Amino acid sequence: MPLDEYRRKRDFSTSPEPEGDEPSRRGHESPAPFFCVQKHLASHLHYDLRLEHDGVLLSWAVPKGPSIDSRDKRLAMQTEDHPMAYGTFEGVIPEGYGAGIVMLWDMGTWKPLVDDVETALKKGDLKFELDGFKLKGSWVLVRTRGYGGDRAEGRSWLLIKHRDDWAGDVDITTFAPLSVKSKQDFHEILAEDDPSVWTTNRPVAGGATGAMLREIIEKAAALKAERGGDRPRPKTSGRQPPGARAKAALPRSRTPARGRSAVRRKQR
Ligand code: MN
Fold first, then answer.
1. Is it the case that residue 142 has pLDDT exceeding 60?
2. Are 60 and 49 in contact (CB under 8 A)?
3. Residue 156: beta bridge partners?
4. pTM for the model
5. Is 70 exceeded by the pLDDT of residue 139?
6. 14 pLDDT band (50/70/90 cuts)?
7. Distance (Å) from CA 127 to ligand 1 centroid
8. Which residue, 135, 153, 134, is CA-closest to 144?
9. N or C end: fewer C-beta atoms under 10 angstroms in the chain?
């Protein structure tokens, strides 16, 4: 899908989202293409997997988020390509398409495990490797018969982790819920966002977008309360060492030492 479609769905005069006409953020040719997963609290919480290819970010919306358990098949709806500059975006989309809060949940590089990405996409079977903070190792995206009728035809894929050293039964989305960019949760990103940007882009009160944003702000507040300690945190596993959660959620380095990763310890 071309960037035209991306632009058509957004009004760039009011959105802090990057326009996609900036030069590549890299000053030189990188050996491996970029990937990211953006956790997106919009009308529904989902995770956007984006893989750099041919100067754009191929994109899939994964409602449940990626799973590192190779027994899981996660629905991934292909969405329009996004501009490279969007890949490191984290913040608030005040209105319009995708209105909500975006968290840079994971990022790194990816490597196709196929001869030709275009062919693999057409075939509906893209094998690849990820080297991010949270997601690593070998994965596959397989096109499937659409959920949701004809509209979903051709857009419906499954994201599956291959069994390797980076697979395990950790629920990675609850184990490592925070941003790799700011180490923050949604409500903090919301609070941190430049108030001038937020204020000038505030939608008209009473409008449909305004209602949705209020709902999102409420969701962010609810998440905050949930994580505040009033309620028990979701149990991930009793076997991880103390501090593993914080360590996984707050990576310090783009290249954490392999073998010392808490996730790797969970391998089966
Ligand atoms: Mn999204």
1. yes
2. yes
3. 77
4. 0.69
5. yes
6. low
7. 22
8. 153
9. C
CA of 82 to the centre of ligand 1 (A): 11
Q: Which residues of 30-58 are buried (b: 16+ CB within 10 A; e: fewer)?
A: eeebbbbbbbbbbeebbbbbbbbbeebbb
Of 152, 111, 135, nearest to 263 by C-alpha is 135
Q: How much distance in Å is there from the Cα of 38 to the middle of ligand 1?
A: 7
What is d(CA 41, CA 36) in angstroms, rounded to the nearest whole number?
16
- The span from the CA of 75 to the CA of 72, in Å, is 10
Count Cβ atoms below 10 Å from residue 152 Cβ, excluding itself. 15
What's the 139 CA to ligand 1 centre distance in angstroms?
21
Q: Where are the alpha helices (DSSP H) in the chain?
A: 3-8, 117-123, 172-175, 186-192, 195-200, 208-227, 244-249, 262-265
How far does the centroid of ligand 1 lie from the alpha carbon of residue 48, in Å? 5
